[in-house]
Design brief:
The chain is α+β, with helices and mostly antiparallel strands. It contains 18 helices and 13 strands.
Amino acid sequence: MWLLLPILFYSVIFLYVRHVYTHWIRNGFPAERTGLHWQFLKQVYSREFQHVNAINEAYKAAGDRSMYGVYFFFRPTLLLRDVSLARDILEPIYGHFEDKRWNYIQGYRKINLLEKLGPIFSIQRIEGMFRNVEKVADHMVKQVDTILLGKERIDMQIILRTYVINIFANLLYGLDSNLFEHTDSVFKSFIQNPLRHRGINSYTLSHLPKKSSLTYRLRDIIKDTVRRREDGSIIRKDIIQLLVKFRNGNNLVNNSKLNWHVENVYEHEKLLSVKKLSKFTERFLNIGYEATASTATLTLYEILQSPSIHRKLLEEVRQMAGATKNADNTINKLTYADIDSLKYLSACIQETIRKYPSVPYIERVCRKNYPVANSRVIISEGRTIMVPIMAMQRDERNFKDPDYYRPERFYNVTQGQDVHNFMGYGLGSSICVARNFSTLVIKLALVKLLSNFDMEYIADKDVEILYNPSPVIKCKDGLSLKVRKFKNDATCKI
């Protein structure tokens, strides 16, 4: 009798595991063969398992199928391999795969934060923030100048990551700080925080635990900033100013006269609590910082690898600088329009996001049974679908010669296959609303660096691109460049 109990116990476990790992076959979907391999266990144990690489391999193993069932431990996941199918499923607003992480309910009001906060990153608002962004970029140039007094090899990944976190400290948290000089800062701790690099972050975009000391320090900054902005003691053209306006129910929609003043209301009338606003800024910081810093670093890396792209880009910057000169040969202050006019640089950034998407895949949970068009299969409620953006944007069916860096794919192109197949900013309701702001931050950094310094990438060894421990891409050992300052009479210096 006692012998039957363990047999029954293990039989139930076996049947449950078998039931889970036959989900896609039972529901009529093509799926991978399942099994437990020693190599997989070894990689997991040594923490060398590359989650993104596993997704890319599963994508290739699917052949020409538009959908392919895979398993992430005990979670059946459906890979979408066709761009048109992915758009049809994810782009409808309030569809079966709505991303509810940004939904907020207060009383009888249901608010989608991404939809409501879109006007914060309109062109007119970003133009107003331009001087604050440029101020941080000038701090970066000054820091590189200081480093060059002692050495000519610089790790530009560290420089650019500090620059980007400084942007977020200034515009998202409202601090008028220079992190290139301040070594003791909560944002320096944010970059170095080991909690953001645990293995569990290979499977989630959540970087900070809810009760870490770092989280509390960031929330204290938000509380103080919100108080001063609502008192009217500080009016500053930045992101937190607009978030405080939104919290108080003020209109953010663009009009002929953009107003940055906060019209304060009673606490019970506010749309967001300070705590909820703090959580939003943390999420924006987590995702936006890594994505912007990695894109800036890898764009610079690819530009310097190709002399022809480098020359063309320098010529575009020189032409822009020449167009802003006065009669006495002095250069006017840069404007947002000047930076926006750099179309080839925009194409370089898009090509970087195509080749190295900052978020390599998108996951959604089915909220209601979804019958797939032109097929007999149904995606069940509660099941996860995944759009492997990196794998799709490196597929020859979607982009010709996908392993080559070619900005011309997006240069002076308004429509076509490449534009349709590009998904680097996301899909559907959670498409990146801050893409114009991120592009400005990246472009301004590269313009300042390319116009002030002669940079050269010396390939002592190949740059290794790291996808783990978080699903955000960066250079594993940094980006070491040989840097020399341009002479004072350089024609492109800005």
